[in-house]
Amino acid sequence: MSVLPIGEARRRLPELVRKVAAGHPPVAIGRRGHVEAVLVAPIAAPHRQVERRPLRGLLTLVGSDTALERAQDDIRRLVAASLERTARQLQGPVRRTRRRRP
After folding, report:
1. What is the reported pLDDT for 65?
2. According to the model, what pLDDT value does residue 9 have?
3. pLDDT (0 to 100) of residue 10
4. Which end of the chain has fewer CB atoms within 10 angstroms, the N or the C?
5. How far is CA 12 from CA 35, 41, 84, 85, 97, in A?
6. Cβ distance 20 to 27 under 8 Å?
């Protein structure tokens, strides 16, 4: 397999892609005779449509609706407290002390 220079491959890329897709053997691309990349056709596989189904039976809630609501309230309260702490830290002046040489 001969090595096609990168500049020539760049100029001829649309043509090379069409040829390889039509069944031409792989094309080696590189510099100074050293292969750095190979242009090959994709593996011939039939394109299947992936069947998507809703998830069922993978999640089981344990407890009551009130327990879930309490947990959501706890999470909201924790997030709000975290945001308040962050806001206080950002508002306060940042004082950096400099060490003096003895």
Report:
1. 79
2. 94
3. 94
4. C
5. 17, 16, 60, 60, 63
6. yes
Residue ranges of the chain whose pLDDT lies below 50: none
Distance CA 44, CA 32 (A): 32
| Residue 81: predicted pLDDT | 93
pLDDT of residue 89: 82
Contacts of 68 (CB under 8 A, 6+ apart): 61
Q: Where are the domains of the chain?
A: 3-39, 62-92
| Integer Cα distance of 29 and 47 in angstroms | 28
In the chain, what's the furthest Cα-to-Cα distance?
79
DSSP run (H or E) holding 37:
strand 34-39
The CA distance from 63 to 83, in Å, is 29
Q: The pTM is what?
A: 0.42
Q: Which stretches of 29-64 are DSSP H helices? A: none
